[in-house]
Amino acid sequence: MRILCGTFLAAVAAVICAAEAKEYTLADEMARKTPDWFRKGVMYQIQPRAFTPEGTIKAAEGKLAELADLGVTVVYMCPVTVADDDPREDMWSPRQVRSGFNNPRNPYRTGDYFHVDPEYGTDADFRSFVKTAHGNGIKVLMDIVYLHCGPSARVVKDHPEYFSYDKNGKMVMAGWRFPKLNFDSRGVREYFKANMVYWLADFDVDGFRCDVADCIPLDFWEDARGVCESVKGGIVILAEGCRHANTRHAFDANYNWPVCLSWLRPILKGDSEEGYNQQWAAGGADVSAFKGVAKLRAASEQYAAKCPKGTLNMNFTENHDTSNDDYENRMEKTCGWDNQTLGLALCFAMEGIPLIYNGQEIADAHRHSIFGHSPDVTVDWANAATPAGRRRREMVRAFAALRRDNPAMTAPGQKWLDNDRPESVLSLRRGESAADGVVFVGNFSGKPVTVGVESVAADKARVLLANGAVIFGASFRLAPWGFAFLEEK
Asked: Closest Cα to residue 43, out of 306, 407, 373, 344?
């Protein structure tokens, strides 16, 4: 008996030692459970200065029914809080100066965290916007900017102790020449938790998009989440960041910077070999062994392996930052309709939440700017009546319907599928098996390709949605920038 006990204890000890030897990673944990309305949703970003000719909340409210008809279920609104009007250009961001608007009112340089900027309307207008959105089956995320504020902001005047100072007593600035709030201060933390509660309780917003979230301590966001949920259940908090631990407790999703900014946008621009190669964004991904679009897949897989299981990301080809910085050379203008439609298709195909940006649904190519409002830098809504605009709207509506009507498209998990043209073709399956899955195949090049995809019999698949795709027996013929969503039979 003693021998048996000794053997048993030795075996247990070996198991414990093996477990201790295994290096712990966040991938051993599960991401927080996010509400179905977000996980299964289709998100639309409104940048109010560019969204309508009026540039107001009231005008944006008038277009909510159109967004609902498109299939949009979540609207993320760029900041509508009061912007600082301090005229000192040395305290404007370099982008703000370069924009040429000569306007101190940058929506990401907050002046008052508790009121709507009169440029966009009134507090009552924003309450009405949220109510009308809810009436159209649309949730509303509000953009909050807590890393920094304007030099003449109300919080600077009321609470100078909320900021950091150097040894000479000069206020420390954030990266954009704005006063940086000090999150080591308990007062700062309580101030912003109260601000989040205010917008939830008084305006009935459904959550927040958190600007530069990774530059603010994660434990603040975790604490804030608990406070917010005590006020309104079922909220969503989206991080403009990709910190691996974000989705454990604090955030429902990250921005998919490692894939969409580092690789998807460069690939669509024709730079599939170099991309932006942002090692920080991919969490140290090494994609040097791969060619072409295979680098995007590698970065996606490596990033996912560092995050909690089930981590969601917001997928995009454009947002207010990228469109702002493209000036007159928006991707829609320089890359073409098929190219940009393929990019949107991948955003809907990949696990996560797809983002439609401010006029993308009508193939808008106008310059947009967050730094000022004029008729020359707004969505060209006349484009909705052109063949390109009508085709894009119908394609986006079809993407949204595909996501709504096929459970595989919003089920947890995705599997990248090997193919014989990895330098130019991406292929993946959503769903647990071929029997209930949806396969996406896309040609991310300006040349036609014939491609075979791992375990997918093209001649036995039913096309759910396609652009420039033809089936040849066991292979697919894809036009330049062509794609197909398939149901396997």
From this structure: 344
